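Duplicate of #3305? Posting structure anyway:
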């Protein structure tokens, strides 16, 4: 899509990169800036393959800092992840807690309690979802929210159909999402947990600023829909279009080459 054909709501909020690595480097730069600026409100973090090179680039940047700057970042780190699978905890590979530990906590020697996620092992996932939303609210809401785009248009695990006021909740994952995320479970969609706890669109849209990151040719179809369709429950990410702090970062492959 030529930039002249971008929708009006994206004006001044769009960056496209030739390579996934330069895209990841740019997003890591913005996360680093947010961490250096003092984190007035917590970061909102996401998992998934899109974020792997972003976190790797962030780790490289932060480990290159003078020791006192890195220590200051470690001490002020506060983040809430979007979601977690029901039935998986930090000790289980495939859990988002394990992914955060491996990508950020271990390489940066962060205190794991500073990176919060919903507790996938909670006996009552619905109660855990509302506890988690209250914890986000008590922390003042999210400052900068990092978001990936699901191949069916979900953000977090807000599966279609989904309205803009959807609360944090426990829900069943769609077949499309279990298929999308099968790689982390030996390629078998049947091994992807059937349920998840997610922050709702209500909390996501409550963030001050949002960085939506879309990478790779497998996202070209859903990104084209996001850029051409009006907001509707069938495309949960479409509710981001009206957010005043939204910025979209893509690579050329996601734009269709
Ligand atoms: C997953 C996560 C989302 C993620 C999205 C895209 O299911 N719940 O938070 O952003 O889907 O994932 P990926 O980056 O692996 O394509």
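Output from current build:
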């Amino acid at each position: 899509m030529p930039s002249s054909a971008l929708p009006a709501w994206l004006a001044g909020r769009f960056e496209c990169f030739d390579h996934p690595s330069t895209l990841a480097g740019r997003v890591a730069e913005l996360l680093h800036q947010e961490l250096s600026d003092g984190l007035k409100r917590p970061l909102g973090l996401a998992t998934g393959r899109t974020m792997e090179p972003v976190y790797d680039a962030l780790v490289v940047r932060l480990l290159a800092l003078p020791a006192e700057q890195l220590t200051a970042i470690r001490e002020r780190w506060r983040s809430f992840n979007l979601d977690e699978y029901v039935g998986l905890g930090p000790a289980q590979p495939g859990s988002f807690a394990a992914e955060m530990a491996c990508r950020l906590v271990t390489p940066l020697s962060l205190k794991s309690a500073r990176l919060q996620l919903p507790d996938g092992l909670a006996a009552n996932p619905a109660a855990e979802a509302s506890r988690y939303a209250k914890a986000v609210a008590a922390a003042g809401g999210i400052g900068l929210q990092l978001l990936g785009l699901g191949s069916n248009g979900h953000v977090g695990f807000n599966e279609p159909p989904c309205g803009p006021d959807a609360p944090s909740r426990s829900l069943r994952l769609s077949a499309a999402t279990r298929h999308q995320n099968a790689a982390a479970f030996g390629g078998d969609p049947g091994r992807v947990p059937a349920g998840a706890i997610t922050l709702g669109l209500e909390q996501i849209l409550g963030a001050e600023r949002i960085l939506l990151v879309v990478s790779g040719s497998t996202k070209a179809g859903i990104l084209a829909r996001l850029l051409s369709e009006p907001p509707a429950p069938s495309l949960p990410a479409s509710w981001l279009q009206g957010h005043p702090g939204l910025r979209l970062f893509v690579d050329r492959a996601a734009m269709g080459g």
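Confirmed duplicate; merging threads. Residues 46-50, 82-83, 148, 150, 156-157, 177, 181 surround GLP (CB under 6 Å). The two ends are 9 Å apart (CA to CA).
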